[in-house]
Amino acid sequence: MMKNAIVAQSGGPTTAINASLAGVIKGCLESHEIDVLYGALNGVEGLMDERLVNLTDIFDHNEENLNVLKLTPAMYLGSCRRKLKDVDQDSSEYDIIINIFRKYHIHYFFYIGGNDSMDTVGKMSRYVKEHQMDVKVIGIPKTIDNDLVVTDHTPGFGSAARYVAASVLEMAHDTYIYNTKSVLIAEIMGRDAGWLTAASVLARNSYSRAPHLIYLPEHPFSKEQFIEDIKAQFKQREHIVIAVSEGLRDVEGHYISAETAAVDAFGHATLSGTGKCLEGLVAEKFGCKVRSVEINVLQRCAAHMASATDIEESWQLGLKGVALALEGKSGEMSIVCRISDEPYQVIYDGADVQQIANAEKKIPTAWINEAGNDVTEEMVRYLRPLIHGSVAVPEQDSMPHYLFLGEAL
C-alpha cells in the first residue's frame, strides 16, 4: 500500500515560508515511508478542487531547485484565506478532503500557515481521528505578525523585522537632511499584536535614536498624549521619526483608523490607514513638514533583506513537521523553543495545535514602557538574535532569481 503526503500553504505570505516548504519536501524525499509528496495549490481550496502537483517529480534529485526555493519569497504553492466550517454544522468540506486523501493514498497532511491555518489543522486532525483514518495532520507555523502562542517566535517574523528596522534607519537618514522641523510616521503591519512595530527599535544606533516614538496596539492610544509626546520630542530635536502599528486602538478598544464596520472573511476589521490618520493630526497641530509611509507588502516579501537565522529556522521547522508525522504524531505544530539569548540557542519540538489555534500572543506589558510610547531593553534582547545574518539570493542577469511553479513544470 502506497503512503503519500500532501503539503499546502495558507494565509499571508512571508519571505521564509518557502524555506519551511523546502524543509517538508526534503524531509519527505529522505523518508523511507513516504512514496510521493503532492502539493495542493492555493491551500485547502486547491485541495478540495483536486488541484495538485507532484513535488516528488519536481524536486527529487534536484538539490539546486530546493536551495533556490528556500530563498524564494511569497508562496510557491499559492495561498487562500479559507476557514473550514464547523464540522458539527456542515461536514461537506471535510468529506471532499477525505475523498481526495483516499484517492491519492494520503497518510500525511502538512499545512503551513498562521493562526487561521492552525484552526484548519485542528479541525482536520479531529475529523480524521473521529473517523479512525490513518492520516497524520501536522501544522508548520508562519506569520510575520509573530502572534502564535507556545512557539518562541514564528518563521517569517525575523526577516520582516530586519526589513522594518533597516527601512526605518534609511528613512531616518532621508529625514535628517533638511534644515526644517519634520515628522515622519512609519505605519507597520500588526493589527492586534505589535511585534513588527516593536522591531523598529533595532534601527537605533550610536548616531540615531530613530524611531523616537513607538506605539503598539497592546497599549491604548491617546491622540492627545500623542501630541504631547511630539511636543516633548521637538524640545530635543528638529526631526522626529515615529513607528506605529496599523492596529492602534483608543482606550475604548476602537481602531483609530476604522472608518466602517466592514470585516473580512475571518471577521477582522477593515482599516483605512493609521499613518494617514495621524499625518493629518500632526499637520493640523504643528503645521510642520509631515509624511506618513505605509510599510506594506514589502515587509513580507523582501527576500534581499531576509534574516539567515529566520531562513534556517523555517527550514528546520519544516523538517521537524515531517519528523513529527513519521513519529506518529497528529494534531501538532512544530515549534521553536529558545534556550538562551547569548549565545542564541534554540531547539525544535511539537505542541498540541489545540493550544495554539485561535489564540494570540501579545507583547508582554513589561516590555512596553510606562508611557506607552517605547519598548524596553527586554524587547531588544528578544528581538536582536532573530535578525542575525544575511543570505545570498541567487541572481540571473543581475536580478534576483527565484523559483516559480510554472517554470519548474
TrEMBL record:
Domain (Phosphofructokinase) ranges: 6-290
Keywords carried by this UniProt record: Cytoplasm, Glycolysis, Kinase, Magnesium, Metal-binding, Transferase
Sites annotated Important for catalytic activity: K142
Pfam families xrefs: PFK
EC number: 2.7.1.90
Chief location category: cytoplasm
Binding site for Mg(2+): N115
Cofactors that this protein relies on: Mg(2+)
Activation/inhibition comment: Non-allosteric.
Key word Phosphoprotein present: no
Active site: D145 (proton acceptor)
Catalysed conversion reaction: beta-D-fructose 6-phosphate + diphosphate = beta-D-fructose 1,6-bisphosphate + phosphate + H(+)
Pathway: Carbohydrate degradation; glycolysis; D-glyceraldehyde 3-phosphate and glycerone phosphate from D-glucose: step 3/4
Binding annotation for diphosphate: G12
Localisation per UniProt entry: Cytoplasm
Job description of the protein: Catalyzes the phosphorylation of D-fructose 6-phosphate, the first committing step of glycolysis. Uses inorganic phosphate (PPi) as phosphoryl donor instead of ATP like common ATP-dependent phosphofructokinases (ATP-PFKs), which renders the reaction reversible, and can thus function both in glycolysis and gluconeogenesis. Consistently, PPi-PFK can replace the enzymes of both the forward (ATP-PFK) and reverse (fructose-bisphosphatase (FBPase)) reactions.
Family affiliation: Belongs to the phosphofructokinase type A (PFKA) family. PPi-dependent PFK group II subfamily. Clade 'B2' sub-subfamily.
Protein name: Pyrophosphate--fructose 6-phosphate 1-phosphotransferase
Species of provenance: Coprococcus intestinihominis
Gene: pfp
